[in-house]
Amino acid sequence: IEAAKSSNNCAVPPFVGDLPIAENKEVLSIWKDYKSGEDCSNQRRETQQVIDDLPDEVRAMVFGRLPSFLNGASTDVKKMFRAIMYNRTLNYDLKKQELSKLAEEILSKKQLAEF
Known about the structure:
By secondary structure, this protein is an all-alpha fold.
């Protein structure tokens, strides 16, 4: 959203498809009546509020930061989690399911407790 503020392009954010279903619908609703060329500061502010209200782990998944439970993980383990997190063909619910499955298979007990 910050990058969008520095440009004159106003539109539904490109990450909207990566959001959980409820937040996806909320952001689409925010932008539904927007007309190209109009001021979009209200839409940007409301969208930012939706993002700010996301739990940390969801925000990390949507915007690409690795969650803290992976801080001590090997490079290979981090790569496996990144492959799921950055997979644009999976929606949020499928990513969550795949990440949970992977976590059960490869994380240590300590990491799994933090997961």
